[in-house]
Amino acid sequence: MLYPQRFTQFTREHADSVAALLCGLLLFLGWFALHLGALGLAFLLLPAAYVIGGYESAREGLTTLFKEKELDVDLLMIVAAIGAASLGLWRGEYHLIIDGAILILIFAISGALEGYAMQRTERSIRSLMSLTPDTARVLLQGREEEVAITQLKVGDQIVVKPGELIATDGIILSGYSTLNQAAITGESLPVEKTVGEEVFAGTLNGYGALQIKVHKPAQSSLIVRVIRLVEQAQTQAPPSQEFIDRFEKGYAKVIVVAGILLATLPPFLWGWDWETTIYRALTFLVVASPCALMAAIMPTLLSGIANGARQGILFKNGAQLEKIGKVRAIAFDKTGTLTTGQVQVFQVFPASEYTRKDVLKAAASVESSSEHPIGKAIVQAAGDLDWVGAIQVQAIPGQGIVGIAQEQQVIVGNAVFVQQHVTNLPEELRQMAQSLEQQGKTVVWVAKNPTPSPSPLAGRGAGFEVMGVIAIADEVRSQAAATITRLKKLGIEQIVMLTGDNEETAHSVAKAVGIDRVYAQLLPEDKLDVIRRLQQQYQTVAMVGDGINDAPALAQASVGIAMGISGSDVALETADIVLMADRLEKIAVAMHLGRRSQAIVKQNIVVALGFIMLLLVGNFLGNINLPIGVIGHEGSTVLVTLSGLRLLK
User: Per the CB 3.0–4.6 Å rule, which of 42, 179, 230, 418 could disulfide with 34?
Assistant: First the structure.
């Protein structure tokens, strides 16, 4: 029973190839029978070759004719083959039946090869993402139970053991491990993950066991959205392909009319005999068909989409792959795009009697009780120092935080808040703070009182002394400057930065990454207006962003590019291209892919039209017969299809 099942599965998966093989075998046997003079056997074998090799094309052609009232290339091929066979029977020249069968055979072989080529593209796309498991190991009343992914609820706790795929997006509750996120981000190197960090469905767990809390429905996980978007990209035809599709429908009608004229007029105009006239008309139907032209675009764009996704660049459709190669101007959001969106300690300036370590240890002791991003940055900077967490900690929103550490009161906050406790701020540090703020840094003051009061907020101005200042900055992405340089080398005419931050911060970041034109203190609608003005001047404009406030500009831009990890859901849904690993240098890669795809499409169109013209001229001069015309026609189709697959590399 096993072998019949395997045979059935093989024939189902390779139906086009099996049909072409049987057609070729029957054609050879029919030709051999004719050669031996066995006409009865030949007339039995050759029609079978026609039916088996041409069934699928005839079915598709007739379906298009009756349902859509349109002629297509498949039907023209069948008409040409049957016409050749009819001419052979009429004139008793049976080699024409062989010619028609060869036409069917080559067309079937071409269809099988094109099918394999497109399957390779589809396999490449499917292999980009590791499919999530069907079940997850859920903790229920202290016991592990296998539960279907579809039954997972927000708040469930799942266990992922070493070497297993993570079933759904979640937050790590306990454990530490490295995760292979190549399926999501395109990064080949594993990423370390620990408590409090987000993990994604479809990523492969390394050596550590993890306990994960489900924080969003399984159907809205990142990998499900990625798969959905890639599937959408495969089904949506870009404008260039839509134009070719419309062109083909009109072109097929022109071919039919021209074929009828060629089959009737030459005997009266040039004195051709009817056999030559009809044979040349049938050959014309074959060589003039735009098969290669139809295959010039979509295989190339699908290959480009697959290549991009393999590198962590998600194109939502082929139109965006076309447009990204034509971009002349690009606008970047600042926070979360050119910067990481995660603040860090930039520099520490201690007062004369203290050291950098003294300032960091004192600040970390109270900030360890804070959830504020600035507090976390200070604690991280003091991670390798020996400090003790403060007690009686009180945070004053928008101002600072106070507490008692090692029997000393410590204050961390802005200048106004610290001045409430300190009589005078050191002039040297005041000037330094002012300079840092002009550079776009956030300045935090640190002061202490060796004699603690009963309440952390008591004893203002009594005994407090400034220890130093800490400059906090949003970290500029390490690859931002190199990306801007690369984009300029690619010929991008205008690169601007859009941000809601103040002028000083905006210009400091712009200077660090090499952007000359800055728009600061913008609201979302202001960013939209800037994009519109850029489009009036440069036509094709790209916008790169990550936040909700970037969504209008992303939607307005010719090409919207969103950061996949740090980006908001609104930005991801609005954008046309998603950088799954938040790696800015991939923008240049995307542009290179877009330009290369356009170059290959143009090459394919030139090759397709060149073959058609060459074959038409050869047909009128009488230098080619029907099989050679078919070989030239189908060979050019396979050639441009394989040419498009070059983008898979």
Answer: 42
Contact 248, 72 (CB under 8 A): yes
Quote the CA–CA distance of 75 and 84 in Å, as a whole number.
14
Three-state secondary-structure class, residue 562: strand
For residue 328, give every residue at least 6 positions away whose Cβ sits within 8 Å of its Cβ, in sequence order, or none. Answer: 492, 493, 494, 538, 539, 540, 541
Burial class (CB in 10 A: 0-12, 13-18, 19+), 153: exposed
Residues 6+ apart with CB under 8 A from 645: 117, 120, 121, 299, 303
Q: How far is it, in rounded angstroms, from Cα 90 to Cα 278?
A: 12
Distance CA 304, CA 313 (A): 10
DSSP 53-80: HHHHHHHHHHHHHHHS----HHHHHHHH
Angle at 275 between CA 271 and CA 279, to 5 degrees: 105
Query: Beta-carbon neighbour count of residue 640 at 10 Å?
Result: 28
Catalytic residue status for 529 = no
Structure tokens at 281: 């008309």
Say which of 333, 358, 550, 582 is annotated catalytic: 333
Identity of the residue numbered 502: N
CA 67 to chain centre: 35
- Strands in 371-441 per DSSP E: 391-396, 400-405, 408-413
CA distance 581 to 143: 35
DSSP string, 153-176: -TT-EEEE-TTPBP-S-EEEEE--
pLDDT tens digits for 432-463? 888 887 777 778 899 998 766 555 454 444 57
Q: Strand order in 391-396's β-sheet?
A: 339-350, 465-476, 442-449, 408-413, 400-405, 391-396
What pLDDT digit, counting tens, does each position of 474-509 carry?
Answer: 778 888 999 999 999 999 999 999 987 667 778 888
pLDDT at 92 over 60: yes
Q: In 10 A of CB 242, how many CB atoms?
A: 13
Give the β-pairing of 313-315 and 198-199.
unpaired
Distance CA 101, CA 90 (A): 16
Q: At what angle do helices 15-36 and 39-67 cross, to 10 degrees?
A: 140
Select from 442, 477, 447, 479 the least CA-distant residue to 463: 447
- Residue 507's nearest CA partner among 310, 281, 338, 344 is 338
Nearest partner of 624 among 290, 291, 289, 282, judged by Cα:
282
Q: With 50 as the cut, is the pLDDT of residue 1 above it?
A: no
Cα 93 versus chain centre, distance: 56
